């Protein structure tokens, strides 16, 4: 995402030595001229962009590989040649996780259990010594081979600072495993909602929101766009510096191509995060991800879950409860997380709330089929609406 686009909206969220609490730029330290970029650096940057474009243009799609039935381990390995993914055996992964010992157990989701391990070049030549997270597909869980294959295809080819890095996989007999870089601080969900977790300060929350949005922007603006489809707090992982990275690509889809306005698909996702228009029509676009981003941003602002059955009836659905307050500066403090104890810039909170409101705009909910045909521009927002477009 262009830095200018981010600074135009998130300017008052930056570090305090540049901005005061009201969002006004402080005097001093801003008058220095930037050094001119050398010709060599410009050429290198242009070359890097060209290589990235070529890489995205040649990206293998899920439909390219899955068409025609089951994919063999050999076909998958050949198809992903050059992706730098390591192919592990089940014996190797048993070894690095101490035979999937409970002492190495990290957690479990719809895909299956996750274990911590440690790999180095003794296991695979050229493999950097590092801790890893090994995710084992539960054959009786809610996800299956296709979701596993989807994740291998997407994360095996896409690289970005705000996407979790897939190191390799295991495809042996009935075993389906994924090996990722280990994210020290776990999921955003754990830090926001666990009873005994320390409250995240304002600056950290905005750092996480911006990082996650940059990951989404990268997916939406790829030469072959990707719709993430499962943007939520449990899928945003954090490293030791609270850098946010998107994980779990099992539900991701290739975006619409050419003149198509959407992808028609079976409605999938998580209650509370899925866009109403997607639920009503089954028409998937980048706007579905933008809605999910709005929900997560709202969770960061309020410290509340998207759906919480333990709250009073009118407060159980976070979007319905908080949306009326998001554009009212006088009442916004009613929904802000009490754990912040008022320690946030007022103007910054108002801007973040306004952004969340735009992502969750009621117009999207009212959108419907007109004359039997879905109209993607009924709200005046084009079908290519993305996070970057929203922030411009």
Automatic annotation (TrEMBL):
Q: Which portions of the chain have biased composition (kind: Basic residues)?
A: 24-43
Output the InterPro entries linked to this UniProt entry: Kinase-like_dom_sf (IPR011009), Plant_Ser_Thr_Prot_Kinase (IPR050823), Prot_kinase_dom (IPR000719), Ser-Thr/Tyr_kinase_cat_dom (IPR001245), Ser/Thr_kinase_AS (IPR008271)
Which keywords, in A-to-Z order, does the entry hold?
ATP-binding, Kinase, Nucleotide-binding, Transferase
Q: What reactions does this protein catalyze?
A: L-threonyl-[protein] + ATP = O-phospho-L-threonyl-[protein] + ADP + H(+); L-seryl-[protein] + ATP = O-phospho-L-seryl-[protein] + ADP + H(+)
The reply on keyword ATP-binding is yes
The Protein kinase domain, residue ranges? 100-360
Q: Does the keyword Thylakoid apply?
A: no
EC id: 2.7.11.1
Report residue spans for region: Disordered. 20-50
What is an example of a GO molecular function annotated in this UniProt entry? ATP binding
| PANTHER family assigned | OS01G0588500 PROTEIN-RELATED (PTHR45621)
Question: What protein am I looking at?
Answer: non-specific serine/threonine protein kinase
- Which source organism? Oryza brachyantha
């Amino acid at each position: 995402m262009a830095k200018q686009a981010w600074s135009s909206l998130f300017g008052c969220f930056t570090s305090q030595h540049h901005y005061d609490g009201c969002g006004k730029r402080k005097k001093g330290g801003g008058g220095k001229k930037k050094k001119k970029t050398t010709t060599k650096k410009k050429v290198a940057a242009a070359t890097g962009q060209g290589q990235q474009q070529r890489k995205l243009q040649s990206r293998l799609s899920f439909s390219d590989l899955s068409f025609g039935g089951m994919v063999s381990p050999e076909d998958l390995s050949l198809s992903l040649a050059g992706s730098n993914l390591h192919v592990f055996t089940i014996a190797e992964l048993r070894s690095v996780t101490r035979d999937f010992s409970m002492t190495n157990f990290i957690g479990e989701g719809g895909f299956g259990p996750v274990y911590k391990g440690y790999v180095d070049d003794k296991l695979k030549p050229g493999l950097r010594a590092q801790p890893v997270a090994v995710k084992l597909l539960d054959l009786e869980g809610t996800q299956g081979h296709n979701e596993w294959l989807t994740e291998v295809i997407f994360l095996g080819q896409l690289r970005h600072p705000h996407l979790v890095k897939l190191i390799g996989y295991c495809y042996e007999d009935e075993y389906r495993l994924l090996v990722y870089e280990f994210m020290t601080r776990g999921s955003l969900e754990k830090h926001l909602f666990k009873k005994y977790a320390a409250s995240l300060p304002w600056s950290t929350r905005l750092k996480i929101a911006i990082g996650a949005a940059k990951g989404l922007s990268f997916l939406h603006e790829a030469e072959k766009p990707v719709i993430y489809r499962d943007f939520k707090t449990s899928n945003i992982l954090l490293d030791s510096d609270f850098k946010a990275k998107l994980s779990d690509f099992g539900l991701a889809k290739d975006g619409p191509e050419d003149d198509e306005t959407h992808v028609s698909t079976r409605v999938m996702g998580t209650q509370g995060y899925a866009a109403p228009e997607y639920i009503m029509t089954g028409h998937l676009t980048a706007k579905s991800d933008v809605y999910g981003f709005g929900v997560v941003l709202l969770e960061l602002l309020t410290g509340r879950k998207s759906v919480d059955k333990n709250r009073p009836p009118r407060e159980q659905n976070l979007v319905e409860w908080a949306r009326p307050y998001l554009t009212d500066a006088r009442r916004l403090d009613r929904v802000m997380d009490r754990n912040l104890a008022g320690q946030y810039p007022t103007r910054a909170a108002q801007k973040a709330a306004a952004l969340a409101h735009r992502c969750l705009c009621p117009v999207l909910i009212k959108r419907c089929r007109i004359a039997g045909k879905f109209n993607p521009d009924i709200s005046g927002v084009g079908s290519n609406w993305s996070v970057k477009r929203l922030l411009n």
